[in-house]
Amino acid sequence: MKIVQVLATSGGVGGLEQHTFNLVNELALHHDVHIIAHPCYAEKFKANVHFHAVNFARSRWNILLLWQLKSLIQHIQPNIVHAQAGKAAELIARIKPFLSGPKIVTTVHGTKKNKSAYLVGDAVIAVSQALTQGIPESKSHVVYNGVYPQPILSDDAKQQLLQSIQKNISTQNQSKKTVMCIGRLEPVKNISLLIESMQQIDANLWIVGDGSLRENLEKQVHDLNLQDRVAFLGFREDARNLLQLADIVVLSSDREGFPLVMVEALQADKAMASTRVNGVVEWLPEQYLAEIGNPQSLVAAIQAALQPQAQEDFRQLFSKAKEELTVSAMTEQTLKIYEDLLKP
Question: Residues 24, 11: one domain?
Fold first, then answer.
């Protein structure tokens, strides 16, 4: 099977990008896979993936971008064209009349009121059940995000990792439990809500990630006099290893599609507290869910997750995540959709 994947973002690496890297690399083990993406992502793909660099920083209305995309796909002549997220879906929708032959697949990764661009797909994949709203049932499929298993760190490796962040957490009381948040420091993640909630939680907070709000969030920590309990660790390539040092993981977002941090936390046997965002509400037990934007509700969910009972409540979810939320499961389900589309 010859497959073209289109990733139309141009810079950061979040859940959408990581999903695409994993899916493309896994598909390429057994199929002829081409990825059309911004040149900044070239190193994310294995040698057996055909990488085609396109500057997607240009507008989705840019005629040269549309022409380049159309010409590339016509030259490759794939069986499947798979557009990842909104911009890619819109671009493919505009050039579809000039593409003869390939079946079109689109994936919805985030909350969108207007899903018209996605409907160009012969099949539409949503990364959580909630995101299927507005998609005809005949086209709709749910495929959860998956990640590769993370090796369990030895005690020595954990100690070395702890030492690598020592300067960030030197003011913290190490006998307190550790709450961890991983994500971009951007408005949609609403990390200020988590910081506000930490006033009532007797634990340390590690914030892993970077973004435009970092200075504002550091000021909030200072204003609330939480400097001795809240540490900013910045962007870390080893964030999944750091997870193994946490007691619990917290997600305070206003919107999500299907957050990879939840998948990674569950696979690391970490209990979670989260706002009621898409994907999470389909997995976490009720007492660990908080109303979006409500600090008091988030406090209650965090306090519940910090109790010993949480490990028991999450035990089955840990096993389920290791079985179902994997790259291989995600790839198998996606391939089945391709195969069904190509049946005569």
Answer: yes
Q: How confident is the model at residue 104 (pLDDT cuts 50, 70, 90)?
A: very high
Amino acid occupying residue 149: P
97 and 181 inside one domain = no
The average pLDDT across 93-116 equals: 89
In angstroms, rounded to a whole number, what is the distance separating the alpha carbons of residues 135 and 94? 19
3-class secondary-structure state, position 324: helix
β-pairing verdict for 178-182 and 248-251: parallel
Considering the domain architecture, whether residues 59 and 183 belong to the same structural domain is answered as: no
Q: Is the dihedral of CA 58, 90, 52, 63 positive or negative?
A: negative
What band does 96 get if pLDDT is binned at 50, 70 and 90?
Answer: very high
pLDDT score for 14:
79
Q: Which helix (H) or strand (E) element contains residue 197?
A: helix 191-197
Residue keyed to tokens 């193994």: 244
Q: What is the domain count for the chain? A: 2
Average pLDDT over residues 294-310: 97
How much is the pLDDT for 12?
75
pTM for the complete prediction? 0.83
How far is residue 335 from each of residues 19, 47, 54, 338, measured CA to CA in Å?
Answer: 15, 21, 25, 5
3-state secondary structure of 294: coil
Residues 313 and 333 occupy one common structural domain = no
CA-CA distance, 224 to 269, in Å (whole number)?
A: 31
Q: What are phi and psi of 144, to 5 degrees?
A: -70, 150
CA distance 216 to 220: 6
Domain residues for the domain of 60 are 2-146+326-342
Q: Which of 206, 170, 176, 204 is nearest to 191 (CA)?
A: 206
Q: Judge whether 229 and 175 are in contact, CB under 8 Å.
A: no
Residues whose CB is less than 8 angstroms from the CB of residue 54 and which lie 6 or more positions away in sequence, other chains included: 36, 37, 38, 65, 68, 69, 72
Helix/strand/coil percentages in the chain, nearest 5? 45, 20, 35
